[in-house]
Amino acid sequence: MKKLRAINILTIALLLFCTIALFSSCTKQDKMYKESRTLMDTYCTITVVSPSRERAAEAIDKGFAEIKKLELLLNYFSDESEITAVNKAAGTGPVKVSGETLEMMQKTLEISKATNGTFDPTIAPVLKLWKFSGRPADPSIPDSDALERALKL
Questions:
Q1: Model confidence pLDDT, tens digit, residues 79-122
Q2: Mapping DSSP to helix (H, G, I), strand (E, B) and coil, where does residue 45 land?
Q3: 116 φ, ψ (degrees, to nearest 5)
Q4: Which residues 6+ apart lie within 8 Å of 119 measured at CB?
């Protein structure tokens, strides 16, 4: 009985300590700063909690700069992106890419394997045939020979 009571007291003390530690780390000076921009063909919002507007703005700018960098490398809809160069050369030869693009491609292959191909990063030639990814999209049924060739890529 004494042992159970000691455990209960210890548990309450630990919870009290954690609660005090949690609330003491949250200062009243911290404020939430939020900024949104359109990047990678979508609406992106970065939220930062900081005691300083300047530090928050710096963190937000760095975050958006990183997203912009990735957009330049990986944007499927941009003729200048590395991923577009890879897609254009599909089945014809290698393309030199940055470390970031290579890392992303390796990760997508891991995800494809983990999902048994449900996530398929090689689908671009098929999407083009079906015209799902055009601007504007204009879906149509491709002929079976073209579809078969695209699936081999």
A1: 889 999 998 888 889 999 999 999 999 999 999 999 999 998 88
A2: strand
A3: 55, 40
A4: 108, 111, 112
The closest alpha carbon to 90, from 152, 143, 148, 134, belongs to 152
What pTM value is reported for the model? 0.61
- Give CA–CA dist 111/108, Å, rounded: 5
Residue recorded with tokens 């394997």: 113
* Spatial distance between the Cα atoms of 68 and 62, rounded to a whole number of angstroms: 10
d(CA 33, CA 46): 8
Strand runs (DSSP E) across 40-88, as ranges?
A: 42-50
| Residue among 117, 119, 130, 126 at smallest CA distance from 148 | 126
pLDDT digits (tens, 9 = 90+) for 6-31: 555 555 655 555 555 555 555 568 99
Joined together, the tokens standing for residue 66 give 């990183």
Q: Give 60: exposed, middle or buried? Use CB within 10 Å, 0-12, 13-18, 19+.
A: buried
